[in-house]
Amino acid sequence: MVAIVPVMEPQATPPGHAPDRRRVVTLSALTVLGGTTLAACGAASGATTSTTAGSGGSALAKLAQVPVGGAVAAQGPSGPIVVAQPTAGQVVAHSAVCTHAGCMVAPAGAQLACPCHGSIFDAFTGAVVRGPATAPLAAVPVKVSGQDVVAG
């Protein structure tokens, strides 16, 4: 008995479904430029790097740099975070990684905005205000130690 198998031939991608060379090159250049711009913005945003604080551990930010009713970006023990000060002297922090697609959210007053797809989070609770994200930002434990915001 002989099995008959049809010959498989490559199929062309339907028109309009495959990116042309110009689009691929443009998107590649924008990706590189966007990453460079975000890196430059992050360095100039007022975010602080960890330094040793007296008895409180690693300083994530100076309390005076975190506006009351607002937030700032910082580097946490496990990655980028956003430190917020809902009321004077009270601090909270959340992961700065958007739960939708992994982009970095940016402080925008009492909210955190994701530049990739437009998700908005509450800076004080991490809750989703507007999607497409559906899960809240992960809380990061922080406290005030002297004039610093520290992990813990």
What this model shows, in words?
The chain has 152 residues and is α+β, with helices and mostly antiparallel strands. It is 16% helix and 35% strand. The protein contains 1 helix and 12 strands, in the order αββββββββββββ. Strand 4 (79-87) and strand 5 form a beta hairpin. The longest helix has 24 residues, at 21-44. The protein starts with 20 loop residues before the first helix and ends with a strand. Mean pLDDT is 76; it is low at 32-56.
List strands and helices in order, with pairings.
Elements: H1 21-44, E1 51-53, E2 57-62, E3 70-76, E4 79-87, E5 90-95, E6 106-108, E7 111-113, E8 120-122, E9 128-130, E10 139-140, E11 142-145, E12 148-151
Antiparallel strand pairs: 1-2, 2-12, 3-4, 4-5, 5-10, 6-7, 7-8, 8-9, 11-12
The share of residues in helices is 10-25%
Order of helices and strands: HEEEEEEEEEEEE
In whole angstroms, how far apart are the ends? Answer: 74 Å
Briefly note the structural class of the backbone. Answer: alpha+beta
